[in-house]
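#dry-run=false #mode=assembly
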Amino acid sequence: MIRTLFKRWRRDYALSSLILLFLLVGWEMVVRMEWIPSFILPPPTSIGKALIDDRKLLWGQHLPATLLEVLAGFSLSVVLGSLLGIGMHMSRRLEKAMYPFIITSQTIPLIALSPVFIFWFGYSLAGKVAVVFLTAFFPIVVGSFDGLRKGADGYSELLLTMGASRWQLLKKIQIPMALPSFFSGLKLSIVYSVIGATIGEWLGGSKGLGYFSRRMAGNLQSDDMFAAVFLLSAMGLVLFIILSLIEKILLRKRGSSRYDSYPK
Amino acid sequence: MHLMQTRISGPFISFGNGWVLFVLKEVRIIKMISLQALSYSVGTGHQTSVFSDLSLSISQGEFVCIVGPSGCGKSTLFKIIAGLLEPSKGEVMLKAQASSTHTRLGNIAYMPQQDLLLPWRTVIDNCLLPWEVNQVRSKAEAITGIREMLEQFGLAGIEQAYPHELSGGMKQRVAFLRTVVTGAELLLLDEPFGALDTLTKREMHKWLIELWKGLNQTVLMITHDLEEALLLSDRIYLMSSHSATTPLQEFKVDLPRPRHHTMNYQPRFLELREDLEQKIHDTHSF
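#status=ok
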């Protein structure tokens, strides 16, 4: 069992792990040989050391703060985004009214708008959640709306001939059919959420990994800065993996290979 | 509800020919469905006619096939009968009463070309779908009914399987079962065996002929397979493309019932087949 797992791991990840290892060793060497000063590019070992030395600050204080912002903003986006997606699917008028705004909202450069958000909602949690919401909302609306719209006319017609109401169609066919597309939106959105939270913290405040990395960069403590960046991307990755697992569990019953070949 | 009928009608048929004839005679008085001068056109100004002035009628308990070239509007006709589409002109009478799409939806069972089994539901959960929508009896009753039918359909033992685990023929049987358990008296089958290979199809014919003796439902079925049409149906309607003057031509299949799947080697069958092909050849300029 463990042997086959290892074999599979080796087949899937051996090459990329090797490249990573080479990069890390090369990186370490470049700094150790003093080709690049360590305050510009700290070696991986000192980043690792910073992760351990400043664990109270990094893991105990700033990571939970950022995680809270990410989760709060993401949850808000999921609830409101899927509600709007369903609403736009059920009402053509709502779709016509809202779709242009949702598209336009995405063309606004987020960084340019964020100071206004901080101005409106303050340096507290609310301001950051608002920025996270702005980044995370769009993929969820589009994911749920597109998924519902694509939701297989053939199946809907079949249910209609059984006498199903619109809500029954939504519940029994369209929502289950939309789940893959919805999850694509969720996975994009959770990664965006981490970025949104970081931007929010850059703009001001006194907590969070984004705030910490910026302060450390100002102090030329680049090992701490890199440690914070490492934690941010690790957070994004872990959240992404969690969502992928939930998706897998929810959709595991549907013979995955035939997954994309539903008749429309 | 129809399960009860099945159980009652079963013995009637097994009593012998006298009883069968008696039952059929009594039942055939009722017109299940009749279409009166039905037209359907598409486009913004309804300028493209799919078919026009189409009339047919089917009595209760009949098995009727519709045969026609691709694109002549057979599937559209089915969608109109099922209540999914509104005809441009004409009337669909259900049991001699004028009906709207609203009254037909939920009262006529429709089996589309693909099996359309929900991939995330087991066989039994797929078959429970009609019950979930109309909930006319208790869930326990519905499940017992479906289990009995699974047995009857030769599907015992797969009720917990997922559609992707089944063969094409099995999926089609499950889809058919789901159509039957809607309880509707009229079944519309749109090329139910069209996607199957010849051997599986023969197997399905044999199966359906056997099964048909016990069911008490009226069937209207689209097919491209003349042999299938002759083997299964009481009458065949030949549907021609919209340019023709007569959109539907009737063809009676006077093969005796109960039928058997090897009947296609009998002289009368071959004769009928030749007639039918001749008729199709006369109506269409290939």
